[in-house]
Structures are given as structure tokens and as C-alpha cells.
Amino acid sequence: MVMPGMTLESLKKHKSLIPLFFCLGLGMAGAGFYLTRLAMKNPEVTWHPKKNQEPWEEYKQKTYKIAAT
Q: What's the superkingdom here (predicted)?
């Protein structure tokens, strides 16, 4: 037994579920993008621990500017 709205045929009958699935998909894609960005851009994450054992040391000499509006 399949839940209503889980097949394309029954989704045509339950049109109110389409925005729900759209928002859910958009939220999951956003969360996946954010986690991927954190894994790639975060200075505390290292993908090659033998090559660069302390990647955060590269950021010691960098200066950060905060734009206050």
C-alpha cells in the first residue's frame, strides 16, 4: 500500500502536496550545499592530514575586515 501523493498519478489528485515537496527538496538541497561549503572552506577541516597537519596556521597572518552597516 502506497501513501497518497507518493506516486505521480496520486500526486495529480492531491495537488496541495506539490508545494510541500518543493519546499522540502529546496531545504534539503540548501542544507547539502551548506554542509559541502563548510567541508570545503572551513580552515579547521583538512582533507590531506599528512600533507597539511595544521591547516588553521595558514590563517594566522591573514587580516579580516568586517563591514558594519
A: Eukaryota
Q: pLDDT band for position 63 (50/70/90)?
A: confident
The Cα–Cα gap between 18 and 54 comes to 47
DSSP 24-48: HHHHHHHHHHHHHHHHHH-TT--S-
Residue recorded with cell 572552506: 41
**Distance between CA atoms of 27 and 38, rounded to whole angstroms?**
16
User: Is 9 within 8 Å of 17 (Cβ atoms)?
Assistant: no
Q: Which of the 8 DSSP states describes residue 22?
A: H
* CA-wise closest residue to 32 among 24, 21, 43, 44: 24
Residue with cell 500500500: 1
